[in-house]
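Incident review: delayed structure delivery

Summary: a single-chain prediction request sat in the queue longer than the usual turnaround. Root cause was a stuck worker, restarted by the on-call engineer. No data loss occurred. The affected request and its eventual output are reproduced below so the record is complete for anyone auditing the incident later.

Affected input:
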Amino acid sequence: MGLSSKTRHLLASLIAMAFLVVWLCATNARAQELSDIPAAFVETGIGARSVAMAGAVTARSMGAESIFWNPAGLEGSETPREFTATYGDQMGLVPYSALSGAIRMNGGYTLGVGLIYSGDEVLTETTALVGVSRAILTTPWLPATHISAGASARTRWASFGGNAGTEEQVSGSALGFSLDLGLLVPLTESVVVAARARDLVGSLKWNSSTSGAYDESVPATVAFGLMVSPREAVSLELDLDKSLRQDNPDRLMAGAEVRVFDVASLRGGYVRDLPPGELEEYTLGAGASIPVGSTTFSVDFAYVFGYLENTMRFSLRVAL
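Output delivered after worker restart:
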């Protein structure tokens, strides 16, 4: 039996979207230059739930937290309103905080916002995100589910050299924008595949006291995820973060979550460079949810056995 015209149209649209994303990423990758601050805007993991699964969350609907990982997952928020806050301390030196929110709107849309702040007077970095997601089509081969798509815009700004120093001290600022796209496609009731493209057509404009003003394109990345739920309380995910630059390695991430009595969760993960390189980390975490009337409070914890230093993440989530 052949495919219906609706299914053929869907597959053609998905293929066209995939080619567009790869072309944009490849174009952006060729334009990439090396920054005068190589570690600028490095995201070290946002949200204790996601970090505890080693970042293998591309194919998961994480609600408000999805604004940082895959905007298509915003649509999967279980409540009309959700807010999260995360705190971590990188190597005991750099405080790292993030806030996010998701609100279900009319017309089937879910609006998401996010804010990441890190650094001190030497180097301060802030990233703001605004995104939207929606169920775009009922899955032809699985009528009880739907395909979700999402997009988000990122604004980055930074300042450095604000601390007291000598006349030779380098100081300056940066401002930039980029675009993320995401897609979630259920294959069966227990299997979901996903794709995410980050920092499409992204750029940063730096202004340095030593180098003057210069532009830098942000390296685009693509990620593919596969999530399998062999049982209702168990989910497993495998992600591939594909590098589009020869000098950056691919990254493989695996994560697992087990829910206990619907009020607690145990999580673990593993991430490494491909081919094997510097990065190889293990993660563990747990979370608990407490309903209070129509509001649910959740507390999550993650511990990363890092290749530089072990770190912790704490998150608070409020679902209304």
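Verification: The chain has a mean pLDDT of 82.
Action items: add queue-age alerting; document worker restart procedure.
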